[in-house]
Amino acid sequence: MQTDIDTLKQRINQLHLEHRDLDDVIAKLGEKPGQDQLQLQRLKKKKLLLKDQIWQLESQLTPDIRA
User: Fold this and answer.
1) Against a cut of 0.70, is the pTM above it?
2) Is residue 15 included in any domain, yes or no?
3) Local confidence pLDDT in tens for the 67 residues of the chain
4) Neighbours of 10 (CB within 10 A)
5) Which structural domain, as residue segments, surrounds residue 55?
6) I need a labelling partner for 54 at 20 to 30 A (CA). Which of 4, 15, 29, 44 fits?
C-alpha cells in the first residue's frame, strides 16, 4: 500500500517537472516573434493534459470524505 502511494507521489512529481518545463518552453517561444502558432497550441494542449493527469493522480491520494 505504501509503495503504491510512493509510486503515485513520484509520478506526480515527474508530471509537475514536465509541466514546469513545458511552461518555460512556451514562454520562451512566445517571446520570439514569428513563432509557429500551431506548435505553441500543441504545447499548450499538452500542458493542459499534464495538468489533468496531475489532478487525477492527486485526487487518488485524497481520501473520499462523505458528508
Assistant:
1) yes
2) yes
3) 788 889 999 999 999 999 999 999 999 988 887 778 889 999 999 999 999 999 999 998 887 777 5
4) 10
5) 2-60
6) 29
